[in-house]
TrEMBL record, chains A, B:
Lineage: Bacteria, Pseudomonadati, Bacteroidota, Chitinophagia, Chitinophagales
Organism: Chitinophaga cymbidii
Signal peptide: none
Domain named Nudix hydrolase: residues: 11-143
Stated name of the protein: DNA mismatch repair protein MutT
InterPro entries, A to Z: NUDIX_hydrolase-like_dom_sf (IPR015797), NUDIX_hydrolase_dom (IPR000086), WH-like_DNA-bd_sf (IPR036388), WH_DNA-bd_sf (IPR036390), WHD_NrtR (IPR054105)
The organism's place on the tree of life at top rank: Bacteria
UniProt cross-references to SUPFAM superfamilies, sorted A to Z: Nudix (SSF55811), Winged helix' DNA-binding domain (SSF46785)
Length: 231, 231
């Protein structure tokens, strides 16, 4: 089929996907980053990403990048935003669609990530990034904070069984501030989306911390319903 | 400056913006639509849009489309989503960035819109649209409903002075269901973001309906703070 002239005469652009991949480990929110392998800015820190190929949807391109760097597929990914400024990439004009993913860091393929040259950096370790990638990270964090205010959060990031201190660490990382222990405990339990297990996590104290599990149905109902969570 | 081979060897794509422009008039939420002027699907109903040009950011392209069709600039526009499926446009592979705008329909340039071939259609008048434009409209409505639940809404769409029945009409259009009058009145006034004026709108009843105006500062504070609005 020949392309109508309306299309044929219009400019074409490089389109990239950039992926903000969040994980949670050792009480820290972490991001999967890599050192850029090409010029300009070879060796500088960057999000993982790549160009959208012919015959490949933007969603598929983001899934490909996630799979290449973590070995994971069927992961919760959402579009963050399109970054469409003309000068954003110093190599050429590139329109970037940013995606963010929340993964259980324990389940990703560490060998694959290392071979790819990808590293998990916690928030306070993240250096200046190339182009507008620092802005993308800030925007993704703002999106996470927004999610945390109006929807339950943690299911995608925490291991299946987790303690209240772990969940509070996660919220503290997202909000970037300390939360009151008792207040957090009261409010998070009041959501009614967690099931207390007959097991304890004894890694952090002798007495141990009770383990919980999300009730997936209640969690999803609250996700649909929304609320305001202030701690 | 020569383009690094990493960029030069990557595929390029047509990138469009499609704009979902909402207005509110005669108690109806309306959308600015047009009949497509080019093949394929010439004459079919479409959102207003266009291709992103060289040296033009995607935001600027959306602002250009809005300005061309309504005469308005400096308008609240937000990205909705990138639509990146390979087959979405039957003419060629086009990646589209959808934007939505909320405008005061009374303030747009009717002559310009008509000359451009654009028409305001209320939600129940909207026919099948080309490509994935019906999906874009559905997604924009879902975004509006989400906004209405967690943030105040109406400032961008209503005239400066408006009555409670007008505001309820707007919410009914967004939610696509009837709302209880007394309950709505109580909850919307409890937000504390409206100022009651010493004027009445006598266009709909002899007794008239009091006119209100948003308190911009309180409105914006509530926008930042968020809440859950259930009616």
């Amino acid at each position: 089929m020949s392309i109508p002239s309306f299309y044929a005469n219009s400019p074409r652009h490089l389109v990239a996907v950039d992926c903000i991949i969040f994980g949670f480990e050792d009480g820290r929110l972490k991001l999967l980053m890599m050192k850029r392998k090409v010029d300009p800015m070879e060796g500088a820190w960057s999000l993982v990403g790549g160009f959208v190929q012919e015959g490949e949807s933007t969603d598929d391109a983001a899934a490909r990048v996630l799979q290449l760097t973590t070995g994971l597929d069927n992961i919760y990914m959402d579009q963050l935003k399109c970054y469409g400024d003309v000068q954003r990439d110093t190599g050429a004009r590139v329109i970037s669609i940013a995606y963010y993913a929340l993964i259980r860091i324990q389940e990703h393929d560490r060998v694959l990530a290392t071979e790819y040259g990808a590293h998990w950096l916690s928030l306070h370790q993240i250096p200046d990034l190339i182009f507008d990638h620092s802005q993308m990270v800030q925007d993704a964090l703002a999106r996470l904070r927004d999610k945390a205010r109006f929807h339950p959060l943690g299911f995608e990031l925490l291991p299946e069984k987790f303690s209240l201190p772990q969940l509070r660490d996660l919220y503290e990382e997202i909000y970037q501030r300390e939360l009151d222990k008792r207040n957090f405990r009261k409010k998070i339990l009041a959501m009614g989306i967690m099931e207390k297990l007959d097991e304890k996590d004894k890694s952090t104290s002798k007495k141990g911390a009770h383990l919980y599990r999300f009730d997936k149905q209640k969690y999803e109902a609250l996700t649909r319903h929304g609320f305001v969570f202030e701690v």
